[in-house]
Each structure stands twice: as C-alpha cells, then as structure tokens.
From TrEMBL:
The gene is asnB. This is asparagine synthase (glutamine-hydrolyzing). It catalyses: L-aspartate + L-glutamine + ATP + H2O = L-asparagine + L-glutamate + AMP + diphosphate + H(+). It is an enzyme of class 6 (ligase). PANTHER family: ASPARAGINE SYNTHETASE, ASPARAGINE SYNTHETASE (GLUTAMINE-HYDROLYZING). It comes from Blastopirellula marina. The lineage of its organism: Bacteria, Pseudomonadati, Planctomycetota, Planctomycetia, Pirellulales. The record marks D373 as: Important for beta-aspartyl-AMP intermediate formation. Pathway: Amino-acid biosynthesis; L-asparagine biosynthesis; L-asparagine from L-aspartate (L-Gln route): step 1/1. Belongs to the asparagine synthetase family. It comes from the Bacteria.
Amino acid sequence: MCGIAGAYWTNPHHEVSAEVLKRMTDSLAHRGPDDSGIYQRPQQEHGPYGIVPGIGLGHRRLSIIDLAGGHQPLANEDETVWTVFNGEIFNFKSLRARLEGAGHTFRTDSDTEVIVHLFEDEGVDAFRHFNGMFAIAVWDQRHRRIVLGRDRLGQKPLYFRVQDDQLLFGSELKAILQVPGVPREVDPGGVDAYLTYQYVPHPRTIFKGIHKLPPGCYLTFDGQKLEVISYWNPDFAREENLSLADAKAELLELFTDSVKLRLQADVPLGAFLSGGIDSSLVVATMKQLTDQPVKTFSIGFPQKDYDETSYARTVAEHLGTEHHEFQVTPDTIEILPKLIHHYDEPMADSSAIPTWYVSQMTREHVTVALSGDGGDELFAGYDRYKAVRLAAMVDKLGPFGRLASRIGMNVLPAGGPQKSILRRGYRFAEAMSLSPARRYLDWISIFNETRRSDLYEDAFVSQLPDSDPYTFLYNAWKKVGRRDPISAASLADLTTYLPCDLNTKVDIAAMANALECRQPFLDYRLAEFAIRCPAKWKWRGGRGKFLLKHAFGDRLPKVIWNRKKMGFGVPLNTWFRGQLKEILHDTLLSETAMSRGYFQPEGVKLLLEEHDKNQFDHSARLWALLVLELWHREWVDGHA
C-alpha cells in the first residue's frame, strides 16, 4: 500500500522539476512511511523512438510484500516501461508463473514487477488480468504516452489534471496541489453535488480542472489526445437463473478464495470487527484459513443506540479472537482538523471519525486489516431497500397509490427525529410522486433538490452548471434495465456510494495511519457473481443477505444473524445540542462563512434553530455545512 504521484509533459516550458516531484511525493508520506523513490527525466529531442516526452514518477511505500525488494519506481529490463503503483495485486503469483513461462525474468518477489512485464505483453489489456485494489501509473516509452489505471470497484483513489500538453496525477489531491500554478478554483457544480451526496462524485472533484479517474477505467495521454476507457463492463441487466444450491456453492468458493488471497502478507495482519454480519463473516473465514489467533478491532460510543461493541465482543468470544476495543466521545472531535487535512475534498460521512480511530488503534498492532465493506451493496443489506420495495408495490397501484401517498403527506409530521417511524413515513409519501431513481436520490440525499434551492443564494445558483447531480445516480440505476427495484438500488449503490463514499472514507482514514485495509467482498469475481445473482436469493422476508445466512449460517452466533442493523453512525444529533453546539454555531455563523456567497444566512440560521429546539434532526446537514466551511479554511483560504 502506497502513495503515487507524477507528471508527463511534451513542452519543456511545462516541465515538473525533480524538486517539485519530490514535494508531490512527500505530501503522501503518510501513505508510505517505509520507503520513497523518484524517477524523473527531462524531455529528450532525440530518443530511440523519436522525441521522448518528459516524465516524472514518485512513490511512497508502505512495505507489505517483498519487504527488501519492492522498491519503486520499477522498470522492465530495457527501461521502456516504468511503473508506480498503489495497492495490491492479489493474483500476482499466478500471473508471475504465466509470465515466467512466456520467458520473462523477474528480479524481485513483489507484485509490482508483474505489472511491467504484463504491460510489455498486453499493453492496456493488462488491467483486465489484475485481481486486486490498485491505482497504477505506467510510463510507456515506446508509445510515448502515460497510462493510468484504477481497480474495478474504486478501492484505491487516483486524481489527475490535464492542461495543454501536461498531465499531473496523484493518489490524493494534495499531491497535484504541490505543483506551482495549479489553481484552487472551487467548482460550484462540485459543491452542489457534495451537498446532494455528502461526497463529490467521480469524475468531478471540488476543484475545477482536476478529475478523479472512475473505477474500472484506464486513461491514456500522449500530449495531445486524452482517452478514458472502461475495461470492466459487467452486464448489470442480466440475472442468471441460479438454483439456491448452486448460488450457495459458488458463493462459498469465491468468498473463501477471496479471503485466502487477502491473507498474503509479510507483516502482521488483523481485521475490523463491527459485530455486523459482513465483518463477522470475514473474521470467521480468516479463522478457518489460519492457525494463528486473529486480531480483531472494534470502535464504540457511550450512546447505546450507536454502540455495537457488545455484538463485536460476542463474535470475538465465539471465534476466539484477540480482541481490542476503543470508545469515541465528543472530546475526540479534536480529530476534525486532521480529517479536514487528509480528506482533500469535503467529505460529510461522519463515520469517518470512528473509521479514523479504529484505523489508528489497529495500526498499533498490525499493518494490514481486512474489513467487511461491500456486503450490503452486493447482497442487499441496507434497511432503505425496504422502502424501495414498498414504493414499487405502491407504484403498481397506479392512481390509488398516488392518492394514498398524498393523504399520508397531509396527516404525517414533516419534522421530528430523522429515524422516527412517522418522519420516515412522511419522507416516503413525499417522494412517491417521483420516478424510482429520483425518489431514491431524494431519500439518500443530505440536501434534496428542494432544500438546496431554498438554501442557495441566487448568485450562486447562477454559477451552477446545467448538469443535474441526479445524473450520476441515474446513469448507474439505468444499467439494471428491467430488473427488480432492489437490484436497481443495490447495484447503483455498488457503483456510486461504495467507491465514492465508503471506499474513500476507508482508504484515507487507513492510509493516514499507515494501515492497509483489504476488502474481501470486493474481489471482482465475487462482485460479478453478486451482480448476476437473482434478487430472490438476496432479499427474502423483508430482509437482505438471505444467501449469506444460507451459506454461512453455522459460522456465527444466531444473535448476529437476527440483530437489527445499526450502521456505523455517529451521535451528531446529541453532540450538536451539547458539547459541539458552540463550535458549530461559531463556525457556520461566522462572517467568513457567511461571505462565501453560497448560502442565504437566514437558511443556515433556520437549520440551526430547528435543530437546537429539537424540532428537526438536521445533524447530517449541519455536519455537511461544517465540513465544507472548515475545508475551505484549510484548502482554499489557508493554502495547505
């Protein structure tokens, strides 16, 4: 696990010096404290393949495999292919055997060397052969181009900027911002998307001119032509008619092999354990595959409604793990400046707080941790899918269903606790006039379209692009074609919420603490199986993960299978009416915040007032506004 950065140019006036390249690389030192390397070569007028562009590659390393021989940047024998790489190629041993059989000679035992040799043979098709989590940059001298590639499900981030004949890239935005002259102009469309989703969706970033490479894509640039091409295109619309027995057998084989591959390491290894089904299954399978005690790590809160440590403890005792716990209190909000610095873009998923702390605690004991991310998206585990299914049933009633929804809006309260039954009923009825995808976005949005319109200053609205943030979700939703609504919602989450929110949250929090996090559910073979798996084997009896329980039911205590899903939330509601009230008000009502030109001051004051009086739970919205303002102070005003 590492950090990568670099540059490509075909005009000597746009050269990125070795000094600047070092600054780019050093800005990622937290991602790789064990080693660093730089390859920088100015543009050459007369190279073996004609005029050779300038290239700079930087690398920071967290040593996991081949501790002595895995130095980067790394080249092939004649130095026509160079690479820097962040992540892990879990099937590198089988790829290496194939390449050695084809005549390639290896100098190291690292997975990185597989990349250069496979690229020699396959070019950009090499990405299709990698099973792993990765962000890869390849300098292809023969074709005088830079190639960037990202794993299929977006576990590893990769940012880039193209200006004329120069391309800059980095594992984090901060690396690109080290280059003199790179503007920090905030994209109004990025702000609008952020307040919709609580993250800025790919390929956009919060800054104009800087982009994210989408998951499952590679990019080529030769100084003139930029191409972004998707190399992973599973058929989301195809549902295979699998029997339950066949589905169970395939799941058992794929999941076990995925965990086994992710146990490869030359350093200590453990697992996050929330006490939910997914992380518990990862730990249970680790237990079956190793003779050593599994180290597990959990995070909790003093508030019972947000604390899962008792369930994690139950699983740990059942499996006999070496278990560790940590409790988060409002006093630990001092971590907020660190979060703002490490999450280069505003990121309003407040569970980044416990994710940071569990990563910090875990790193004190191990260097690699497995997690259960992805199980909810692949096997329909979120409670919100109940609303999706119910809405589809109401849609079938036609005019009668719409009439019932209007009546519900008139009799149910619009305010009150966010998670109360009555409040949920109102939100359900309110959205029933919308299309299924638009309705789903309305439910998952931090600020839906109406709330954003009411909050924005007119001058800010005039700066917004014609594109609608809804398009990001809709493009994912429509891939499922005529499949059932739960498949539409869960598979849309797989390609939107998972890479942009969950994977980003885990990557930044873990890597800031020099911890590698591996996610067995996100093996692309398992994902492809879940994509074609019938919804009837995922959702049954009003609950998701039916197939997981059928396949792995005997591995966990019954209480884990039957417990109510809690999620990885943070008690912001309580904090913002107590210990954090002052900092919230002082920040959002400051002259600095009010002068941004985004929001009507009356709108912000109303959110605070309604929350203070317990008329409405605006905690998620207020957290999003707080993070946005603090991000501005760090990355725009302060030029971090």
